[in-house]
Design a protein that fits this description.
- The protein has four helices and five strands; from the N terminus they run H-E-H-E-H-H-E-E-E.
- The protein is of the alpha+beta class and 109 residues long.
- Strands 3-4-5 form a three-stranded antiparallel β-sheet, with no helix packed on it. Strands 1-2 form a two-stranded parallel sheet.
- Strand 1, helix 2 and strand 2 form a beta-alpha-beta unit.
Length: 109
């Protein structure tokens, strides 16, 4: 499934409430799947421990997945700090206005 997701350029967002609910980030990234880390729990009905801090959520991701090595910690940080931007809005290849191409690959035509 990871290979299919990567081939279709489908990105995913995971959360970190416990290890069994975290997506297999390393396996997904091996197949080119962009993965972000999200936090929707801001002291709400789900949990009284949310604070909307992505560094805090990154800490929780590392804790619940029991990472120990520097590269594992760095990957948790990358997913928490930058992964959401990868998942958010991909760059448009082309913008058409009034039947004419007005931009390609982020540059005005």
């Amino acid at each position: 499934m990871a290979a299919d997701l990567g081939e279709q350029d489908i990105s995913l967002t995971t959360v970190a409430p416990n290890e069994s609910l975290v997506l297999p980030i390393a396996k997904l990234r091996e197949h080119g799947v962009r993965v972000g880390l999200g936090s929707d729990g801001v002291r709400d009905a789900w949990s009284p421990f949310g604070n909307a801090g992505m560094l805090h959520r990154t800490h929780i991701l590392g804790w619940v997945t029991d990472v120990r090595l520097d590269d594992e910690l760095a990957e948790c940080y990358r997913v928490g700090a930058h992964g959401g931007a990868d998942v958010d809005m991909p760059q448009r290849d082309m913008v058409v206005h009034g039947g004419r191409v007005v931009a390609r690959n982020g540059e005005l035509a």
